[in-house]
Amino acid sequence: MTTHSITNRMPRLLAMLFLLLGVFCAGALTVHADDYDTTIDRLSRLQALARDFSASQSDTPDPIELTLAYTRTGSYNTTIWQLTAGTRDPEFESYVSSNDPDLVALQSVNTVTLPNGEKIDFGHLLASMNLVYNGIPITGSWGG
Fold first, then answer.
1. What's the confidence (pLDDT) of residue 34?
2. What span, in angstroms and rounded, lies between the C-alpha atoms of 24 and 37?
3. Most distant CA pair in the chain: distance in Å?
4. Which of 16, 58, 72, 104 has the fewest CB atoms inside 10 Å of its own CB, making it the most exposed?
5. Is residue 140 in some structural domain?
6. Does residue 144 fall inside a structural domain?
7. Range of the domain at 81
């Protein structure tokens, strides 16, 4: 992936990150502060590792795709998900494991409770963001 194509995706990436931040901010009112802070910290550390890993690779994989794919597990890592959202990168997963093994916890975050008591499937949210980032906005999210 070229620097130009990554630059072209930045507005979409920023919009998705602000959406995610908004969900976390809304959930922070009812989620224990340590859990919220820990999740935000882990996502930030994962994204930093993805940028570092990407910069060290000759094919410069997209750090956003690495970050989102890393969190996609279980039913969000089936063949259909891999065909539409992309496959997980075993080299990146090994890199994360050796540099910050605590981040594996992001693969099991399930539900965020909003202030109105509704729950959001966090795993589905990140998997949907992965599809949206790859250009499949409707069928890959709650609209699908």
1. 41
2. 9
3. 47
4. 58
5. no
6. no
7. 3-133
Torsion on CA atoms 12, 143, 124, 22, rounded to nearest 10: 50
Q: Which two tokens stand for residue 60?
A: 């410069």
Q: What is the DSSP string of 102-140?
A: GGGGGGG--EEE-TTS-EEEHHHHHHHHHHHHTT-TTTT
Question: How many domains, in total, are found in the chain?
Answer: 1
Q: Amino acid letter at 8?
A: N
Least confident stretch, 8-12, 50-54, 56-60, 113-117: 113-117
The predicted model scores a pTM of 0.71
Residue 141 domain flag: no
Residue 54 placed within a domain: yes
Contacts of residue 60, defined as CB under 8 A and 6 or more positions apart, other chains included, come to: 1, 3, 54
Q: Which long-range contacts (CB under 8 A, 24 or more apart) does 134-141 make?
A: 134/65, 134/84, 134/85, 134/86, 136/84, 136/85, 140/84, 140/85
